[in-house]
Specification:
The complex is a heterodimer of chains A (about 110) and B (about 120).
Chain A lengths: L3 E4 L2 E4 L5 E7 L7 E6 L6 E5 L3 E2 L7 E6 L2 E6 L9 E6 L7 E2 L3 E5 L1
Parallel strand pairs in A: 2-11
Antiparallel strand pairs in A: 1-3, 3-8, 4-5, 4-9, 5-6, 7-8, 9-10, 9-11
Chain B lengths: L2 E4 L3 E3 L5 E8 L8 E6 L5 E8 L4 E4 L8 E5 L4 E6 L8 E8 L9 E4 L3 E5 L2
Parallel strand pairs in B: 2-11
Antiparallel strand pairs in B: 1-3, 3-8, 4-5, 4-9, 5-6, 7-8, 9-10, 9-11
Classes of the chains: A mainly beta (about 110), B mainly beta (about 120).
């Protein structure tokens, strides 16, 4: 099973600032990496797929980079609605597809 | 408009059986895999299983193999997740989800149901 490790567990950032979230895979997942946003009481929302492609309707302030085992999600200028939990997920190897443990992005 | 609408919250006792549902609309049900994801209280996301309605192929994560059964009713575009004997540790939110790419599991999942909360308590 591929283990996805996200860091940091919690990130405190002020609105308007940049946030960078990291995700590391225990073995290569190529570019088969997605990022999801989850707010309390809501289902996950796809932000990025293929490591760097924004999903439909996702603002340009969200960007993804990386391949192989190292990935980042950057939010260039945080808006109030961006404070949430973010998960990375590999869909390169089944079984199973695995998520990271999540990074909670909170207001500083 | 693509929609995945899940059945309502359930409260069950240990040992009881349960089937929850995910009714889809807005796309060809048989053209896409459908998956189920578990989220235990205050915890992260875990893939459980996938089903391909076109050929009835099911794939289970090892952690969930033998613990749940995934099925569909193509006539009503609905997927199901079923337990034969619930445990307290099955208490969680369960989401169904559809991948971006037709015919492929190897894809990010862009449409999600709203979730079904299952509570198992004596």
């Amino acid at each position: 099973e591929i283990v996805m490790t996200q860091s940091p567990a919690t990130l405190s950032v002020s609105p308007g600032e940049r946030a960078t979230l990291s995700c590391r895979a225990s073995q290569s997942v190529s570019s088969n990496l997605a990022w999801y946003q989850q707010k309390p009481g809501q289902a996950p929302r796809l932000l990025i797929y293929g490591a760097s492609t924004r999903a439909t309707g996702i603002p340009a302030r969200f960007s993804g980079r990386g391949s192989g085992t190292e990935f980042t999600l950057t939010i260039s200028s945080l808006q109030s609605e961006d404070f949430a939990v973010y998960y990375c997920q590999q869909y390169n190897n089944w079984p199973p597809y695995t998520f990271g443990q999540g990074t909670k992005l909170e207001i500083k | 408009e693509v929609q995945l609408v899940q059945s309502g919250a359930e409260v069950k006792k240990p040992g009881e059986s349960l089937r929850i549902s995910c009714k889809v609309s807005g796309y060809s049900f048989t053209s896409y895999w459908i998956g189920w994801v578990r989220q235990m209280p205050g915890k992260g996301l875990e893939w459980m299983a996938f089903f391909y309605p076109a050929d009835s192929e099911a794939k289970y994560s090892p952690s969930f193999q033998g613990q749940v059964t995934i099925s569909v009713d193509k006539s009503i575009s609905t997927a199901y997740l079923q337990w034969s004997s619930l445990k307290a540790s099955d208490t969680a939110m369960y989401y169904c989800a559809r991948p971006r790419s037709p015919g492929s599991r190897m894809s990010a999942f862009d449409y999600w149901g709203q979730g079904t909360l299952v509570t198992v308590s004596s």
